[in-house]
Amino acid sequence: MDKRDTNPADTGHSARRGNVVAGLVYVFEQVMPDPFVLAIGLTLVVALLAVAFAPHASLPVILTAWYGGTFNILGFALQMILILATGYAIADAPLVQRGLRAMAANVHTPTRAALLVFPIVAVAAWLNWGLGLVVGALLSREIAKRVKVDFAWLVAGSYSAWSVCNSGLSSSIALSQASHGNALNLVEKATGQVIPLSQTVFAPFVFIPTVLVAVVMTAIFIWMHPKQDDVVAFSETQPELAAAAQADPHARDSKTSSFAARAEQSMLGTLFLLALGVGYLAMTWYSKGFELDINTTILIFLLVGLALQRTPIAYADAIRRAARQTGSMLLQYPMYGGIMGIMTGTGLASTIAKTFVAIATPVTLPVLSYFSSLIITLLIPSAGGHWAVQGPFVLPAALSLHASVPRTAMGVAMAENVSNMLQPFWAVPVVAIAGIRIQRVMGYTAITFAVSLVIYAAALWLIP
C-alpha cells in the first residue's frame, strides 16, 4: 500500500485540516447509516412527534396519511430521476466526451485545472444537476491522466463546483413551485399561485451568491493544492477502471443486418421524437410565452441528449447506464413522501409552523429556514425529499408572517448547496465514476462548506 494513501486527506497545509477530515470520515462511515435507513428512522421519529404534539394524531390518521403521502409523491420522484438520467445521457454522448478530452488536453498545471473545472462543472450543474455530476467526474479523470495533480483535490473541486445545482434550472424546489399541479408545489396548494423562476433561480439573492461561490472557491482550491511531494496522483491500476476507460460504450456490432439492428441504428426514430418535442415547445412558447417547469426542462434535456446520441439504441444504452445511479432515489422519495403525509395529515406541520411564527419575523424567517435546512440536509440529502419534509412547516410560517415566500423556499435550496459538501450522498456517483475513495474527497469539500455557508447566508440576508 502506498504510504501516502494511508493518510490521503493530509494536504500538508495544517494539522487542523487533518483533524477535520478524520472527524468527517468517522461521522460518515461509522455513525450515519445509509440514507434509506435514515429515512426509515425519520419516519419513526415523525410519527412519534405527531403522537406527542399533533392535534389529529390517531393511528388511523397516521396510517392513512403515510400511505397517501408515499404514493402521491411517485410522479415527482420519476421526474427527478429523469432529470438525472437525461443529464447523464448528455454527458455520455461521444461529442461531449471528445469535447471534455479536448479541453483536458490544454491543461498543464493544477492552477489551469482548477480554472477549467470550476466554470465548466458549475455551468453544467446549473443547467442540470445530473449533467454536472457526470461532467465533473469525467473531466477530472481526463485532466488527471495528463497532469500531475492531486486527484482527490481535483475531484473535490469538481464536486464543489457542482454544489451550485440547487440554485439552477434543475432545482427541484424552484421547479416544483413553478409547475402547475405538481405534487410538491406547496405554494400553489396554499395560495393558488405558482412562483416563476424569475423570482427564484434568476433572482439576485440566488444568482449572485451562486456565481460568487464558484469564483471564490476556484481561488481557494488553487491555494489548497498540495505541494508536489504530497500529491497523490491518478492511477488506473484497478482492472475494472482500466477496462472502463478503454472500452467504447458506443461500439456496435456492425456485422449484423437484421431488421431489429437496422431499426436501432436508424436516426429516423430520433428525428421523429425531435420533431414532436421541438414542435410542442415552439407551439407552447409561441402561444403562452417562454416558461420553464419540471416537465419542459426534462423534455429539453431529452431532446438535447437524443440529438447528441444520434440513434435510439445509443440513447437507450446511455439511459441504462444512468439508471445505475438512481436506485437510492427510487427508495428514498416514497419514504419522504410518507413523512410529508404524516406531517400534513396529522397537523404536525402546522404545529411546527406556529413555533416558527412565534420566534421569527418576516425578515428573519428566510434565514431561519436556511439554517434549519443545513441540519435537515444532512439527514435528507435529496432536495425534493427535503422540501417534502421542511416545506409543509416553513411555507405556512411565511404566509402567516407575510414573509417572502420565494426567499423562504430558496433558503431551503441554497442550504442544500452548502450541506451537500458534508453529506456524501451525491458524492457517491462522482467518486464511483472517477474511481476514487470518498474519504479523500470530503476533507476538501469541508472547506467549501464553510465558505459557501457564509456567502449564501449573507446573500439571503443582505441582497434584495
UniProtKB/TrEMBL annotation:
InterPro entries: SCFA_transpt_AtoE. It holds the Pfam family SCFA_trans. Keywords: Membrane, Transmembrane, Transmembrane helix. One of its GO terms (cellular component) is plasma membrane. The chain crosses the membrane at residues 36-54, 66-91, 111-139, 201-224, 267-286, 292-309, 330-350, 356-380, 443-463. PANTHER family: SHORT-CHAIN FATTY ACID TRANSPORTER-RELATED. This is Short-chain fatty acid transporter. The lineage of its organism: Bacteria, Pseudomonadati, Pseudomonadota, Betaproteobacteria, Burkholderiales.
